[in-house]
Amino acid sequence: MEALGLNLRDFIYQLLNFILLFAGLYYLLHKPIINLIDSRRKEVKDSLEMAEKVRKDAAESEQRQKEMLTAAQKEATDLLSQAKEQSKTLAAQLQAQAEKKAEAILTKAEQEIAAEKTRLKEELRGDLADMVIRASEKILRHEVEKGEKDNVHKILTEL
């Protein structure tokens, strides 16, 4: 081995030093490194579990939001159709009331027109009778003698 430049005694010392160093480091650092690796492994596992839980919570929250949105849309649709129905009912009621009022106004107007027509007829009849009497008097004044005039006047007054 010396031909290769190796000395057996140095080799054994180095081997013993290496074994002692390895044993010392193993004894001193093995548990802390294993604990560190285990701790890191647990942190990663916990982080993954937490991420999965957050993902599930987010999915559940999203599902609840969708359900709430669907319920709100359904409620809005129901309210809208209810409002439409109420407006149709109200419009029908208002139209019926308007038709009733229009009918009442028309009936009242017809009655007023009929009353006015009757009043005007009576007034016209009275005026016409007066005019006929005056005209008859004028005609009779000229044609009838004094004695006959009194008789005609008497007859006309009786009428």
Observed structural traits:
159 residues, mainly alpha, 2 helices, rod-shaped
Describe this structure as you would to a colleague:
With 159 residues, this protein is mainly α. It has one domain (2-158). 94% of the residues lie in helices and 0% in strands. The protein has two helices and no strands. The longest helix is centred in the middle third of the chain and has 136 residues, at 8-143. It is rod-shaped and about 195 Å long.
Q: Would you tell me the structural class of the helices and strands? A: mainly alpha
Number of domains: 1
Terminal residue distance: 178 Å
Helical stretch count? 2
Count of individual beta strands: 0
**DSSP helix fraction:** over 70%
Mean pLDDT: 87
| Structural shape | rod-shaped
How much is the radius of gyration in Å?
63 Å
